[in-house]
Design a protein that fits this description.
The complex is a heterodimer of chains A (112) and B (112). In chain A, 0% of the residues lie in helices and 63% in strands. Chain A is mainly beta and 112 residues long. Chain B is mostly beta strands and 112 residues long. The chains are: A mainly beta (112), B mainly beta (112). Chains A and B meet through β4, β5 and β10 of A and β5 and β10 of B.
């Protein structure tokens, strides 16, 4: 099976930097996704890591360490619109092919 | 392109009633998924399809049935709704298994 852990809630200040961590335990690991979900809306894709290291995409960056079963999403120059839930999702190879399992999400609140 | 659309957006059912949720995608994706999202539980996979005419069970399939008669449509049926099925239902699609999933706007279902 898979186990994915993320903090439930985080609060940060507009203009600051925040790091949202995700740890996972799984067999057949084959990639990690980050999604953003605003209240009452659908999840939208943010980033994907399959190799160790940092992937940068504008104000958002995502890091992966396969050996440690660890990823983080880094949000820079926080804006009020970044207030949302951030979902970590782990892809693993199973007998039935690739399987994606979502964490419960981290609710980020950006304050003035 | 509309992406992934879901019908209806909101529905109230009485216990024992049946209903069908419709998901449509115009991205020519092979894979389609149905998730439910409950507070503190994250996204949980109900059923999925790897292509037209195929379906498979996910993590929480009991009480639901699905059909994929056309590549662009994926239907989720509740034969006899129960209060435990009160949830937000998201449909998603991806070109291949394990690739980035694109989500519909969700259907909010309340079972009384």
């Amino acid at each position: 099976g898979q186990n994915i852990d993320q903090p439930t809630e985080m609060t940060a200040t507009e203009g600051a930097i925040v790091q949202i961590n995700c740890t996972y335990q799984t067999s057949g690991f084959n990639g990690l996704f980050w999604y953003q979900q605003h209240a009452g809306e659908a999840p939208t894709f943010l980033s994907y890591n399959v190799l160790d290291g940092l992937e940068e995409k504008g104000r958002f960056s995502s890091f992966l360490s396969r050996s440690k079963g660890y990823s983080y999403l880094l949000l820079k120059e926080l804006q009020m619109k970044d207030s949302a839930s951030y979902l970590c999702a782990v892809r693993a190879i199973t007998g039935g092919g690739n399987k994606l399992t979502f964490g419960t999400g981290t609710q980020l609140k950006v304050e003035l | 392109n509309a992406g992934v659309t879901q019908t209806p957006k909101f529905r109230v059912l009485k216990t024992g009633q049946s209903m069908t949720l419709l998901c449509a995608q115009d991205m020519n994706h092979e894979y389609m998924y149905w998730y439910r999202q409950d507070p503190g539980m994250g996204l949980r996979l109900i059923h999925y399809s790897v292509g037209e005419g195929t379906t498979a069970k996910g993590e929480v399939p009991d009480g639901y049935n699905v059909s994929r008669l056309k590549k662009q449509n994926f239907l989720l049926g509740l034969e006899s709704a129960a209060p435990s099925q009160t949830s937000v239902y998201f449909c998603a699609s991806s070109y291949l298994g394990g690739e980035t999933q694109y989500f519909g706007p969700g259907t909010r279902l309340l079972v009384l």
